[in-house]
Amino acid sequence: METCVYQLNVSLKGYQPRMWRRILVQNQMNLKELGLVLMRSFKMDGSHLSSFVVPVNLTSSEYLCRIFEEKGSCLGYRTKPSVAFSLQPEERDEWDEEPNDASSAILSDMMMHEKENMAFLYDFGDGWEVTVKLEKILPFDPATAATLPQTITGAGYGIIEDCGGPFGLMHIREVLLQGESHEEWDDIVDWIGDEDFDLDAF
Predict the structure, then answer these.
(1) Class of the CATH domain delimited by 4-155
(2) What number of other Cβ atoms are within 10 A of residue 16's Cβ?
(3) Whether the Cβ atoms of residue 9 and residue 137 lie closer than 8 Å to each other
(4) Each residue of 144-157: pLDDT tens digit?
(5) What is the spatial distance between Cα 114 and Cα 136, in angstroms, rounded to a whole number?
(6) In the chain, which stretches have pLDDT less than 50?
(7) Which of 1, 3, 111, 138 lies closest to 53, judged by CA?
């Protein structure tokens, strides 16, 4: 595929109110680079294992189909055919099998058509999942290449590390919104370090 710009709509699964971003990226970036973009966007510090899970179907690229044929589906996570790419393939002892390297996977081989999506997983203990949807394919302009990747808009602050995942984050939001009348207010504020912390701020 020729060089172009992907407009991605990415959202944190399992969290309400919806926390999301609209991001412009070059389609020739690799998945490790994209993973770093997503981590920065959602305030993930990169201290945990992370991977992409990419669905495989009849319209998938030859590259993705070949990986699927060689290693099979990551059925431990998805019931539908899919391939996982790790951002930390060197941590082999942490994976059930030899991981695919995200740095060798090009975004344009993962998603080729608008409306396709894949998942970005971060911290398998807390269980963060970001849904990555290819919203639009835009022409590439070399004059603006230096501005990519670029976050256009979105909603919500991002995650708090080691808080228990989406449900833990929603609980923290509830405590902060209720204020000092909540029995956990002091503990939460001491942990976060800011009594004016706003999880809805973007």
Answers:
(1) alpha beta
(2) 10
(3) no
(4) 889 999 999 999 99
(5) 6
(6) none
(7) 111
β-pairing, 100-101 vs 117-122, is unpaired
Kindly calculate the radius of gyration of the chain based on its CA atoms and give it in whole angstroms: 18
> So what's the pLDDT on residue 94?
60
Distance CA 130, CA 189 (A): 26
What is the amino acid identity at position 62?
E
DSSP annotation of 58 reads T
Q: Is 182 exposed, middle or buried (0-12, 13-18, 19+ CB in 10 A)?
A: middle
Pair 179, 188: CB distance under 8 Å: no
User: Tell me, what DSSP letter sits at residue 98?
Assistant: P
Tokens representing 90 are 């060197």
Instruction: Please list, residue by residue across 44-59, b when 16 or more beta carbons sit within 10 angstroms of its beta carbon and e when fewer do.
Output: beeebbbbbbbbbeee
Burial class (CB in 10 A: 0-12, 13-18, 19+), 42: buried
Beta bridge partners, 9, equal 22, 133
Q: Please state the domain extents for the chain.
A: 4-155
- For the record, the structure tokens of 13 come out as 């699964």
Q: Which of 157, 15, 151, 37 is nearest to 52 (CA)?
A: 37
| Cβ neighbours around 187 below 10 Å, total | 11
